[in-house]
Design the sequence.
């Protein structure tokens, strides 16, 4: 039998694509090697040029679709292939939902060792466009003018000027504010930050909008350089767009890609905006986490409430509670709620949100969940329900161990990453907690991301 010649960068191959990777690229096998090709879709045959070869896989760049799937569509956005924000704009929306359900099932089996967990079809959106209530934009200089937009993936090169080419995922009123802010930045002759020389003032602009209230916050992320016209510019932004109720300068001296720094200065208006979600009112500060798709957030949170199955007298722990959104929703149906959160500003907002909603059965604690929860359990905390909504990296082992010590009868887990969700569910299942139902929710249409909510029941619990 002839020995196969290994692929090398520059080789052009034809490949049958059989699936999608977790970041949305097509996956096939060539001479026994997994090949990842962004832009390729399952059931297609493609030509690709090999760009990178590793020990167990290679990456290729799509040259031509030889055989096309009926699920392929033309992306609405001309920058979709370059900016990296919409990995799946070339895939029919219903096919995306099917893919995301399959992705969750595969992760549970492959990573968690869980083969029989019911995974419901992913809940999609009737209109999956203009859903984002927040946007981060990079500032760059072009022909003597500031431009606000997205960098091409892995670069500091602008791929789309948002004032000229509207992002189809972002709320349209936010796009209007972007155009006004860009115009004013140029009229004030503000210099953008240069990533090579490390010189300049403006690094990013972040804009967030209350879905129900329409209140808008503009955050100007800058270096620590002295800025004499900051308040005058802020007043002009408010005058130009009356829905802007908060203009904040955030100072970030970190040399990396971290968007926000630790210091905020209110230049005009308030230090926060407000929004309403699931019949509750929430205060949102610049650094606080708040879901970016409000319509689907209500779907997700109501499903979490359903899975909680509260009767009215339970003690609930909401770990990674953020500004208290889920905690506040649960508090209307439980005896008491304890919220744990590491970000100080988020805890301040959470306490204010409880007061705004006349919820007096919630207590919030500031600190890492991996420290606070074990300490509380050691002091005798025995909740009836634990809700987990960790960051993408999932739960630390100290958190899972503390849950096991409580012998809590029910756990509800909200996750933005199927891989870390599967890992943690596998650990809990091995210790006696049975995942009863998984509900994926499409919080991020046209991207490869999917959110899930799961409930687990401790064996032998009523």
Sequence:
């Amino acid at each position: 039998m002839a020995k196969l010649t290994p692929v090398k960068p520059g080789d052009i191959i034809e490949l049958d694509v059989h699936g999608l990777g977790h970041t949305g690229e097509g996956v096939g096998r060539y001479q026994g090697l997994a090949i990842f090709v962004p832009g390729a879709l399952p059931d297609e045959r493609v030509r690709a040029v090999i760009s990178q070869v590793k020990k167990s896989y290679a990456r290729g760049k799509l040259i031509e679709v030889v055989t096309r799937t009926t699920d392929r569509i033309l992306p609405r956005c001309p920058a979709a292939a370059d900016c990296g924000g919409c990995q799946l704009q070339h895939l029919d929306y219903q096919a995306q939902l099917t893919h995301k359900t399959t992705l969750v099932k595969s992760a549970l089996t492959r990573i968690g060792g869980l083969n029989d967990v019911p995974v419901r079809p992913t809940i999609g959106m009737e209109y999956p466009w203009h859903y984002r209530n927040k946007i981060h934009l990079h500032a760059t200089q072009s022909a003597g003018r500031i431009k606000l937009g997205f960098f091409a993936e892995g670069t500091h090169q602008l791929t789309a000027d948002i004032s000229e080419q509207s992002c189809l995922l972002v709320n349209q009123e936010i796009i209007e504010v972007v155009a006004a802010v860009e115009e004013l930045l140029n009229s004030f002759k503000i210099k953008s930050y240069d990533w090579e020389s490390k010189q300049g003032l403006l690094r990013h602009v972040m804009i967030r909008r209350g879905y129900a209230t329409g209140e808008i916050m503009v955050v100007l992320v800058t270096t620590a350089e002295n800025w004499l016209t900051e308040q005058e510019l802020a007043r002009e932004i408010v005058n130009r767009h009356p829905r802007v109720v908060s203009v904040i300068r955030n100072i970030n001296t970190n040399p990396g890609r971290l968007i926000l720094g630790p210091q905020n200065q209110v230049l005009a208006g308030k230090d926060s905006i407000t929004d309403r979600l699931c019949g509750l009112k929430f205060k949102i500060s610049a650094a606080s986490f708040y879901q970016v798709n409000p319509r689907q957030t209500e779907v997700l949170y109501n499903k979490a409430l359903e899975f909680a199955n509260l009767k009215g007298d339970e003690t609930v722990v909401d770990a990674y509670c953020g500004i208290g959104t889920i905690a506040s929703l649960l508090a209307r149906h439980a005896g008491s709620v304890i919220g744990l959160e590491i970000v100080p500003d988020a805890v301040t907002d959470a306490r204010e949100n409880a007061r705004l909603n006349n919820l007096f059965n919630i207590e919030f604690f500031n600190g890492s969940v991996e420290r606070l929860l074990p300490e509380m359990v050691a002091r005798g905390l025995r909740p009836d329900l634990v809700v987990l909504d960790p960051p993408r990296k999932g739960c630390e082992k100290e958190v899972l161990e503390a849950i096991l010590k409580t012998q809590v009868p029910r756990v509800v887990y909200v996750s933005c990453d199927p891989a870390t969700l599967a890992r943690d569910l596998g650990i809990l299942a091995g210790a006696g907690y049975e995942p009863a139902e998984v509900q994926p929710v499409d919080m991020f249409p046209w991207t490869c991301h999917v959110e899930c909510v799961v409930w687990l029941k401790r064996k032998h619990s009523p």
Observations:
- Residues 93-110 form the longest helix (18 residues).
- Residues 1-72 form a domain with the OB fold (Dihydrolipoamide Acetyltransferase, E2P) fold (CATH 2.40.50.140).
- The radius of gyration is 24 Å.
- The chain has ten helices and 21 strands.
